Amino acid sequence: MRFVIVTGMSGGGKSTTMKMLEDAGFYCADNMPVALIEKFMELISMPDSDIQKVALGLDVRTNQSFSEINQIVNGLRKNYSFEILFLDASDQVILKRYKETRRVHPLSVDGDLMSGIRRERERLECIKSQAEYVIDTTNLLTRELKAELDRIFVKNQDYNSLMINVMSFGFKHGIPQDADLVFDVRFLPNPFYIDELKQKTGLDKEVRDYVMGFKEAHEFLDKLTDMISFLIPNYVNEGKYQLVIAIGCTGGQHRSVTLAGELYNRLKDKGNYGLTLRHRDTK
Which of 38, 86, 258, 263 has the highest CB neighbour count under 10 A? Predict the structure, then answer.
């Protein structure tokens, strides 16, 4: 039997994840009091049980002494086999999600959302450190989250919890605040000044062919791919969960879009990490 404890930051995507796991054939139980977990595991582990895949959702609403779960989890590991999936997101994204849904954070005091988020993050640090899987949903679309869950729990592929986000952008609109690595490709000729390419983007074949027609573009990609390939295992060893690679040109329409797409294709299917592609400033 496969048993997964699904937990994480409120607003990190736990409810959506539970629905996706249910669609994948898991028996899902959400918001169970921590004190009942061991009895629940005992019942579903009985020899005559027909349940083969179980997902148990836990969050701070379940038990206000949630910090005690570290002790309970350690005790359970002596008798049961299970995995922990932790859903995370940046403080700013969680704050934005709460404002959009107008929900009340379970640990906010006097309506102070940010203090509640910080308090929850501190409280969950112990269980996050024990998690087999950490998925950062900061930049994930719903379909991309589903792809990550399928990779882990349906296809049973190896997973190391690093999510790589490749992003194109325009410098005139500002450097992405969440970027870990920023690369400037304004050294390449600009398709903007070619009439037939001006209104197109790097998503169009004509622009891609023009940009990639320069040997400097290929040399840049070769060197960048080599460096990223070196960095990935080192970031994984250091416990990094998200890597945002931002590639910028002047307006974020042509060169950066082309090279971000090319880098994405080179990294795709090359390792057991998650990978997404974003074009922040395309029209």
Answer: 258
Q: pLDDT tens-digit profile of 241-250? A: 889 999 999 9
Q: Residue 271 and residue 274: Cα distance in Å, rounded? A: 8
Which residue range(s) make up the domain with 9?
Answer: 2-153
Instruction: Say if residues 180 and 231 touch (Cβ distance below 8 Å).
Output: no
Whether residue 126 sits in one domain with residue 86: yes
Strands 53-57 and 133-136: unpaired
Percent over 90 (pLDDT), the chain = 53
Instruction: Find the Cα–Cα–Cα–Cα dihedral 230, 238, 3, 273, rounded to 10°.
Output: -20
Residues 141 and 205 in one domain: no
CA 266 remoteness from chain centre: 20
At 111 the three-state DSSP class reads coil
Is 158 contained in some domain?
A: no
